[in-house]
Write a structure and sequence with these properties.
Layout (H helix, E strand, L loop, with lengths): L7 H15 L6 H8 L3 H13 L3 E3 L5 E3 L2 H30 L2 E8 L2 E8 L14 E3 L4 H7 L4 H7 L16 H14 L2 E4 L6 E9 L5 E10 L3 H20 L3
Antiparallel strand pairs: 1-2, 3-4, 3-8, 4-5, 6-7, 7-8
Length: about 250
């Protein structure tokens, strides 16, 4: 990484955390100062801040250990990794039953991030690939996940006039988006009718964690010619897949 944009305070905090990960509940302020080369006054400030953020715990005997925030982050990280693995194992059945592409994605701010895809053996290929990002408002999975947010939170994600028109059917305003999200909330699923790419339709449902929070979505995409006869079967199959993925995380 270019050092021009380096943040020394973050590097110092990272060094402290690495020391604590290697020797939990054994190091005091003086030990950490000696191990990292950070002077005592700076170390005091770092530890005070990190303790307030739950990055570290100060224990009896004035030693330190990693804080609870890393348990939360670690669980989230491994849940995400496990989710992709589970999708790879479980999505084949739905893909083969439908003969259409099945995808997995999550929401990051206003963008949909594609995590995995099972593509059927057809001549038609989707534009999306794992790692790709698209505006959430233009996709079925994106709208499914946006519908879990308050309207004010949704509007804050996109500036009026900035909505990108991928096709003539793409949502073009916050007002229009909120109307669509209300329909999604009432239905419990979201659809994309040639909104991200002409010739393609998509249906999406959410994946939830043990607390009922939506952490990702799965979808089935197909050509507009297949949509009338396959829409209901696709809805059933991805609901089954989403349920299977939800109970495994």
């Amino acid at each position: 990484m270019e050092r021009k944009y380096w943040v020394p305070a973050l590097e110092r905090a990272n060094n402290v955390l690495l020391e604590l990960a290697g020797q939990p509940s054994k190091l005091k302020l003086m030990d950490l100062s000696a191990a990292t080369g950070i002077n005592k006054s700076t170390m005091f400030s770092l530890l005070q801040t990190m303790e307030a953020l739950n990055w570290v715990n100060k224990e009896k005997g004035d030693t330190y250990s990693l804080g609870s925030v890393f348990g939360v982050m670690g669980n989230a990280y491994f849940a995400g990794m496990n989710l992709v693995k589970q999708f790879e194992e479980k999505a084949n059945h739905s893909m083969e039953r439908l003969g259409e592409a099945i995808q997995l994605a999550r929401l990051e701010k206003g963008e949909l991030v594609y995590l995995a895809k099972k593509e059927a053996a057809t001549h038609v290929r989707l534009i999306s690939e794992p790692g790709m990002r698209l505006p959430a408002y233009a996709t079925a999975m994106g709208k499914m996940l946006l519908s879990a947010l308050d309207n004010d939170q949704v509007l804050a994600l996109y500036k009026e006039g900035s909505y990108q028109a991928f096709t003539p059917n793409t949502v073009q305003s916050g007002e229009e988006l909120l109307k669509q999200l209300q329909v999604v909330r009432e239905r419990g699923y979201a659809i994309d009718l040639e909104e991200i790419a002409l010739g393609f339709c998509c249906i999406a449902v959410p994946i939830v964690d043990r607390n009922g929070s939506r952490i990702a979505a799965v979808s089935c995409s197909m050509s507009v010619h297949q949509w009338p006869q396959k829409q209901e079967l696709a809805k059933h199959e991805i609901e089954q897949l989403a349920h299977a993925l939800s109970v495994t995380i």
